[in-house]
Amino acid sequence: MSTTGIGARVLRKEDHRFITGKGRYTDDIVLPRQSYAVFVRSPHAHARIKKISTKEAAAASGVVAVLTGEDLKKDGVGGLPCGFVPAPGPQNSPPRPALAQGRVRFVGDPVAMVIAETAAAARTAAELVDIDYKALKACVDPARARDKGQPQLHDEAPNNLCIDWQLGNKEETDQAFAKADHVTRLEFINNRKVPNAMEPRSANASYDQGTESWTLYTTSQNPHITRLLLAAFELSIPEHKLRVIAPDIGGGFGSKIPHYPEELLVTWASRKVGRPVKWTAERSESFMTDTHGRDHVTVAELALDGTGKMLGLRVGTIANLGAYLSTFGALSATYLYATLLSGQYAIPGVHCTVTGVFTNTCPIDAERGAGRPEATYVVERLVEQAGRETGIGIVELRRRNFIKPDAFPYQTPVALLYDSGNYDPVLDEALKLADYNGFEKRKKAAAKKGKLRGLGLSTYIEACGLAPSNVAGAIGAGVGLFESAEIRFSPTGSAQVLSGAKAQGQGHETTFAQLVSDKLGLALDKIDVVEGDTGEVQWGHGTYGSRSLVVGGSAIMKACDKTIEKATKVAAHLLEASAADIKFEAGTFTVKGTDRTKTIGDVIMASYVPHNFPLQDMEPGLDSRAFYDPANFTFPFGCHICEVEVDPETGVTEIVNWVAVDDFGTIVNPMIVEGQVHGGITHGVGQALYEKAHYDPDTGQLLTGSYVDYQMPRAGDLPSFKLGFKCTPSPHNPIGAKGCGEAGAIAAPAAVINALTDALGVRDVPMPATPQTVWRTLQQSGARQAAE
Ligand code: MCN
Fold first, then answer.
1. Atom 27 of ligand 1: nearest residue by CA position
2. Cα distances (Å, whole numbers) of residue 288 to 44, 360, 575
3. Does the N-terminal or the C-terminal CB of the chain have fewer CB atoms within 10 Å?
């Protein structure tokens, strides 16, 4: 194995920059004559705007302009579109103006934009914008949003209904339940999360009067899509007149996928005021307005026959979509959710209904895992509970129902065609690493200390590597989901790799360089990866859905192949041989059966100094460009085992052991993958034990709007993870890789709550299982037991 290629544990190239404070984030961009924007946001969850008076603010010291929704209207600026309608539709998609027009619908909804010489002046003037609101009743609870008498958010969405959607085979599922010997039923809430990227959102736009074009720096996971939406749907300008640059990004976790009002507003305003306009969110703005994730209310049932064979799975979910449809709106609640409900199991009947509703809360969009953690939570909580209820056991019930290796490709009843999988060996390895057989002994030892010990499994599957474009189109996305790559060489043998992906911390500068190093035999330090600039990168769909390696990386592999093809001709010319006789290996072209060679460096140089090229047959240069559209998703899977100890006196849960065995196909950089798994698990543990965006049910105020009220997991909350990999290559991409960026977040919540319910001897503990929730659950179950 090469020391820098696929499989090598290479230190991250980008980390020198990041850990020495040399990263260049959007807020670091300072443009000549830059002005500063501050947004006046709604303090109400729901209100009519009777009047906005901007006079006093406009007259304040240092103020450049004060703009409102009326100004947007006058300039004919379009609202923010939603790029997804879950097929077959319909979907009620009410308009979403960038600045409120007539009504505000969640706390933080932007109403006015104050632009000034300094951020401090803009903040001071923002206090002077006088808005006369008529407060309206708020609708916050998704479970009640369609009830009679609830406040109505949009005229276009009667009863606050956005979608009423379903997937699966209803009749077969109903029949399965009719003949079931055992049904396990659970009801739960998948708690709303704030993604909490370390770097807050920021945008800085300028307009060049000479070329009549714009440049927008922004914290975007997909700058090309941001450009498309801004140019085509909002500003009505030719797309190439806008350059969108996403510089270094300090975490996204999905919240920087959507296109936001602030991006439009600074771009629009930069032309209006004739100078650059910059905005950076305060942390409290991030809490209020970065799209949130999850927020499902679900009833789920699993039907089994007398032998424990799964017959059917029936799920009804109410999905909170927030006050407006975000860019990918209901995608996480529909096709990224219901399609995963078959899990790792052969279940003949699966049916899911999703009712998507509007409420006076921040819009919902993708959050690490996006729909797949919610699905895994449903399946894995039910399976674990059924294993306990039937007495078959949590391991045996899974084994009896796993899709068998010879059943692949396996068509699930919920649209996905799993291409490959072998679940038993992964489960075996996880049980071994977790010392499953020794658990009862550990439980007894814990009891002696007065602790309740529990163990929970999560044998998850996910579909990632979004996505084949034909599938994206069929399910209702307004975009294709291929990826592009370009390799540009300099005559002296260094290379720039341009990719349409856009990292926010995933290490693409290292792993993508490893691919090229592996393929072309170039030294790693001669390869730089460029992402996130629509002026440089030909096209891209960005980074989310653990797609960057399997789709973006595959495009790079394809571009490498094109380069090798071209370079082989050049080498043949230099070596005076036929191209058919040239072999390329580890950066060296050799005439087969001889010791005559040219290095890739020689060939690159000759391509750019083509003094004796036969002009008709060969063109100078070696640059190559490729577009790659995958044939299918990739289906990573694994088994996570969590072991907890609960202090019954305080309700405090300690995670004492964590085992994760995953199949990510070919691994390019094991160290980066391990880091991704660690981050993902931590994300999921946060959801299970600590995090919840809590809105006051009456007023719609966000009660968890700061780190004082919203708890994130910390390093000390987690054990040292035991990771194992049992990888089998993906059958359809040139790397053989499967995505890894979300796996931990998908698997973890179910593993934690399964462990907790085991420890407490209860059917359910609501997430987040804070000490208070655990303590209350214990008291209630204890009281019940005493009564029984
Ligand atoms: N990789 C590898 N071998 C594999 C799979 C992946 O070496 N078999 C490497 C990749 O080359 C890449 C990294 O692991 O460097 C993650 O790859 P991939 O699974 O393709 O995921 P993406 O790069 O597309 O990242 C998206 C994913 C998502 S959806 C979220 S959300 C997320 C995440 O990654 N947000 C993150 N990880 C994050 N990590 C950080 N630090 N910050 C975020 O915001």
1. 741
2. 12, 12, 64
3. C
What's the CA gap between 34 and 486, in Å, rounded? 33
429 CA to centre of ligand 1 in angstroms: 24
Intervals of the chain under pLDDT 50: 783-788
* pLDDT, position 786: 42
3-state secondary structure of 763: coil
Distance CA 30, CA 352 (A): 50
pTM: 0.97
Residue by residue, DSSP assigns 491-533 as TTS-EEEEES---SSS-HHHHHHHHHHHHH---GGGEEEEESB
Tell which atom from ligand 1 comes closest to the C-alpha of 511.
11
Which structure tokens are listed for 45?
A: 């969850």
- Give 614-644 pLDDT, tens digit per residue: 877 789 999 999 999 999 999 999 999 999 9
Ligand 1 atom closest to 673 (CA):
14
pLDDT, residue 734, reads 97
Q: For residue 42, what are its two tokens? A: 């709604």
Length of the chain: 788
- What per-residue confidence (pLDDT) applies to 618? 87
Q: What is the atom index within ligand 1 of the atom nearest the CA of 553?
A: 11
Which one, of 696, 674, 686, 691, lies nearest residue 743 by Cα?
A: 674
Q: What is the per-residue pLDDT for 1? A: 61
- Cβ–ligand 1 contact at 190 (below 6 Å): no
Beta strand 277-280 with 242-245 is unpaired
Give residue 254 CA to ligand 1 midpoint distance, Å. Answer: 12
Dist. CA 88–CA 332, nearest whole Å: 16
